[in-house]
Design brief:
Elements lengths: L4 H4 L16 H13 L6 H4 L6 H9 L14 H12 E4 L7 E5 L20 H10 L5 H13 L18 H10 L21 H15 L7 H33 L31 E2 L9 H14 L2 H23 L13 H5 L7 H18 L10 H4 L7 H28 L9 E2 L7 E2 L3 H11 L1 E3 L10 E3 L2 E2 H12 L1 E2 L14 H20 L14 E2 L3 E3 L5 E3 L3
Parallel strand pairs: 3-9
Antiparallel strand pairs: 1-2, 4-5, 6-7, 8-10, 11-12
Length: 566
């Protein structure tokens, strides 16, 4: 049976802006920068769907009239073409006969103007990222967005948006600014049915904003390309953690048909905005046991596989809860259209408000609404023609309401579809088998959580930064400090739910036996080796207090910068 469109619709903006498709972070960042430039809205120039070809970009830089700006390009066209394709362009199917330009790599805020729509879709991840930052508490989100704008939109007059005279910009930024001068000014676009709503977990938004502010404290000390890669890895990591927490939280909200008392901007006990530096106090925190060695077949890898499996098994419950919210929202909209309910002044129902339409007060009207939906579905495909596993649910013998039957029918037809796409989405946000990965999967093997060196380096840089006290006269918002190795492992666990030397008790693990303790010791040793490899840690002695992680750049509270010492 082919479901009608109204039946198969799944996404609810209050749950997530994600379309749950595989995404590439270059394209997510490109779309995010478009929204940063337009206050959360997409760009009208993008909707025109211009076609950009590799040869067109190359020819622009080889043009004789630009020889003074891009010296040597015209004399070495092959080398210039390779540089443009590898350093400047984001390609799909790179190196294959069907390769195509997705757009420019997001090295500057204006690169969104040059993306090819069909090859550069962010599938809602750009909007999810922007809304997470927008709704971070205590002004942290606004400040983080301002810092992001200052970093990515460099070289532009803040008032006019026009390029400033050359001030030692890197060649990639100069190239983007040059291309921008060839394009018409773009304008923000309104999208029907779109609205801005806080994410279900506002504590995760607080943590994302705090991490962005800390990381961008280093923007004057790190090469621009390195900082862009750091931010892509950080954004992917937080998008994934936010989705994992949403899976737990939404399922719990659907079960109680309302808001969780410990969640929301007023009640959330977690996040830097509440005077806490971690999310361990959150009852829906995401616990992941990570294989620090990254080698399959070890006891630690087996525990990491088990940890990943726990989360994969939560997806069907999340899909069911997602359908519950979406269909109750449609029921609420129906009552509003009949004048039997009033839409909130903000213009939309929150997830908690939608779930209240599952109460006894609305039972009679709810049954009428979904009985009508069921009749329409069964007119298309009678019970006798339904899949064998669904037929018992559709009879009166099971005692299910029309609403419950409707949800069960949707799950039967679309549950696996959404399950597979959500796995793909989480894989891509956790950068599976790529630099910065939190999940790995060998060919025909099981998924397991890992801690790739690229992500570890980003998280170390953030952990070593401390906020400056008010009144500090420094051009930096943060100063650096040192950490013991055990302190850093505690930070990974409490801030991000990444467990190295412990098992996540609330996420699939109970007692720790002798075998698990041996695996944890081996994992801790592998983590120490990984820290040594990325250059932040060296053994000064066997004493625990001397096992210290030190920054590469020491930033004092007065803003003085010196080289880190190890």
């Amino acid at each position: 049976m082919a479901l009608r469109k109204r039946d198969s619709e799944f996404r609810h903006l209050g749950v997530s802006y994600l379309d749950f498709k595989r995404v590439e972070m270059d394209r997510v960042l490109t779309g995010f920068l478009m929204r940063v430039n337009h206050g959360g809205r997409p760009s009208r120039i993008v909707s025109q769907r211009h076609k950009h070809e590799s040869a067109t970009f190359v020819q622009e830089f080889l043009d004789e009239q630009h020889a003074d700006r891009f010296q040597g390009f015209r004399e070495h066209p092959d080398m210039a073409g390779r540089w443009i394709e590898t350093q400047l362009l984001d390609m799909v199917n790179r190196g294959k006969p069907n390769q195509a330009v997705a757009g420019l790599r997001p090295l500057h805020g204006l690169t969104y103007k040059f993306r090819n729509y069909y090859h550069s879709r962010a599938y809602g991840a750009d909007a999810q990222l922007y809304e997470m930052l927008r709704h971070a508490r205590d002004g942290r989100g606004t400040l983080a967005l301002e810092e992001i704008r200052g970093f990515f939109f460099t070289g532009l007059d803040p008032a006019l948006g026009t390029p400033l005279p050359d001030s030692g910009l890197d060649v990639e930024t100069q190239a983007v600014l040059h291309l921008n001068s060839q394009v018409k000014h773009d304008t923000p676009q309104n999208v029907k049915g779109w609205y801005s709503t806080p994410p279900l977990c506002v504590g995760q938004s607080d943590l994302l904003a705090d991490d962005v502010l800390r990381l961008l404290s280093l923007r004057e000390l790190l090469p621009r390309i390195v900082m862009v890669e750091y931010l892509k890895i950080l954004f992917a990591f937080h998008l994934a953690l936010g989705q994992l927490k949403t899976m737990k939280l939404l399922t719990a909200m659907a079960e109680r048909s309302g808001a969780e008392t410990s969640c929301g901007s007023e009640n959330c006990p977690a996040g830097p905005g509440q005077g806490r530096d971690d999310l361990a106090v959150c009852p829906f925190s995401a616990g992941l046991f990570v294989d620090a060695a990254g080698v399959p077949g070890t006891p630690a890898a087996a525990l990491a596989e088990r940890s990943a499996e726990v989360w994969l098994r939560r997806i069907p419950g999340f899909v069911r809860a997602g359908y519950t919210v979406r269909k109750l929202a449609e029921f609420a909209a129906h009552l509003v259209s009949l004048g039997e309910a009033t839409k909130p002044s903000r213009g939309f129902f929150t997830v908690a408000e939608v779930l209240r339409f599952a109460d006894k007060a609305h039972q009679k009207r709810r049954e009428q609404f979904f009985a009508s939906r069921m009749d329409a579905l069964l007119d298309d495909t009678p019970i006798s023609e339904q899949p064998e596993g669904v037929r018992p649910l559709l009879g009166a013998g099971m005692g299910l309401s029309s609403f419950e039957q409707y949800i069960e029918l949707l799950m039967a037809y679309r549950g696996k579809y959404h399950n597979d796409y959500i796995i793909d989405s989480i894989d891509s946000l956790l950068l599976k088998n790529r630099p910065g990965a939190v999940i790995a999967q060998p060919y025909r093997g099981r998924r397991r959580f890992v801690l790739d060196s690229a992500l570890l380096e980003v998280l170390v840089q953030i952990a070593l930064l401390k906020p400056n006290a008010r009144g500090t006269r420094s051009r930096f918002l943060h100063h650096t400090g040192s950490l013991r190795l055990d302190e850093f492992m505690d930070i990974l666990r409490r801030r991000y739910g990444l467990h190295v030397n412990r098992l996540p008790a609330d996420d699939g693990f109970t007692a720790t036996g002798f075998e698990e303790q041996a695996a944890l010791r081996a994992n801790t040793d592998a983590f120490t080796t990984r820290m040594r490899e990325i250059g932040f840690y060296s053994d000064l002695s066997d004493a625990y207090l001397a096992q210290v992680i030190t920054p590469r750049f020491v930033i004092a509270e007065d803003g003085t910068v010196t080289a880190g010492g190890r």
